[in-house]
C-alpha cells in the first residue's frame, strides 16, 4: 500500500476544523492516527460525517421528544424508543439536552476510528 504522511499543515487544519467535535480526552489518539495514516485511510476519513455538537443540541431542543436527535446520530432503536414514549414523557428528552453534545463527540470519535481501522 502506498505510504502517505499527512503534513503538519493538513494535520493542524483537520484538528482546527474538527477538534472540538471529538472528546477532549481522545484528541491525542486522533492526532496519532492522523500522523500514521495511509492514502486509503485518509480517503476514508474524508467520507466520515462529523456532526456538530452545538447543532445536535439544537436538534435535541427542537425534536428530542420525538427522538430526532438520536435518529441523526444513527441510533435508530433509541430514536424509536424516544418517539414511542414521547421522550420518556419528556424526562428523557430533558436529560438528553445535557448529554447530547458529549454523545455526539463520542459518536464522531467512534466513526473516525471505524474509518481508520484496516
How would you describe this protein?
This protein has one domain (8-116). 72% of the residues lie in helices and 0% in strands. The mean pLDDT is 91. The protein is an all-alpha fold.
What number of structural domains do the residues give?
1
Largest sheet: none
Note poorly predicted spans. Answer: none
Which series of helices and strands comes N to C?
Answer: HHHHHHHH
Output the radius of gyration. 16 Å
What is the SS-derived class? mainly alpha
- Distance between the first and last residues' Cα: 12 Å
- The overall strand count is 0
**Overall helicity:** over 70%
**Binned strand content:** under 5%
Total DSSP helices: 8
User: What shape does the CA trace take?
Assistant: elongated
Average pLDDT metric: 91
Write the layout of secondary structure elements.
Layout: H1 8-18, H2 27-36, H3 39-47, H4 53-63, H5 68-72, H6 76-84, H7 86-89, H8 91-116
Helix pairs in contact: 4-8
Amino acid at each position: 500500500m502506498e505510504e502517505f504522511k499527512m503534513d503538519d499543515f493538513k494535520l493542524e487544519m483537520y484538528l482546527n476544523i474538527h477538534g472540538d467535535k471529538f472528546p477532549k480526552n481522545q484528541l491525542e489518539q486522533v492526532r496519532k492516527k492522523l500522523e500514521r495514516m495511509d492514502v486509503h485511510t485518509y480517503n476514508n476519513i474524508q467520507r466520515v460525517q462529523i456532526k456538530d455538537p452545538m447543532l445536535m443540541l439544537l436538534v435535541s431542543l427542537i425534536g428530542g421528544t420525538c427522538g430526532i436527535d438520536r435518529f441523526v446520530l444513527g441510533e435508530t432503536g433509541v430514536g424509536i424508543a424516544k418517539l414511542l414514549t414521547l421522550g420518556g414523557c419528556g424526562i428523557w428528552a430533558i436529560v438528553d439536552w445535557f448529554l447530547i453534545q458529549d454523545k455526539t463527540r463520542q459518536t464522531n470519535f467512534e466513526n473516525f476510528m471505524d474509518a481508520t481501522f484496516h
